[in-house]
Amino acid sequence: MIDLQRRIDVGEFKNLKLSDERSLAIEYEVSRSSIKRAVTGLVNQGIIFKKRGSGTFVNPLYLKNKSLFRSVGANLGVSDSFRHHGETPAIHLLSAEKQVADEETRQALFLEPGELVWVVQRLRSIDKKYFMIENALIPVKLIPQATENDFKYSMFHYAESATKKMVSKSLMTVTVEPSKSQDQQMLDLAPNEPVGIMSGIYFLDDGTPYEYGTMRVHYKYMHYTSFVSLDGE
Prior knowledge:
transcription; DNA-binding transcription factor activity; Chorismate lyase; about 30% strand; transcription regulation; alpha+beta; 7 helices; DNA binding; Bact_HTH_transcr_reg; Arc Repressor Mutant, subunit A
């Protein structure tokens, strides 16, 4: 999926039409089901679309302004969906440690008592300006070989590499509340300024809960674009 999106980004598909899934499976030497998952992921992000009877095409609006669309490996595109106008995003790891999951986490991730989770806190920045505090809980059993260093990079890319599955769905709630002292300190907010809260559960494409997370976002960056499909594809 990552390579397919790269090819789209560099304009390899001149007529905007992708090869059919059978041809892509042969080209990448993978199963049809793997290609179907990759294509479905790009459709869900609004990067490509299917036209019944004609094939699969690159969305020209995506090519016109990629920063407004979701990008794999970034919280289902949350950070890349902010309108940062070509500025450079970065991840700054604050902490990552294993802990026994509490009751709330066990319920969210369908874990048994005593199971371990990675507890990860990171800061996201755009051109060295912090805009998001990210807190994530991930079952250790899903990524048993992970080390603290792995969380300096995309946790969704790591999931795809380690589990051979994509993070393809989420159940998310978006709210706003008064900022707390940590928000004010890390995100340069005034005491009377609010913070956006994006919390949810992210699932692998086989339905397994992968992450229970919360993102606290500077209100100026709460410009989120989502692609919604109602055609049942």
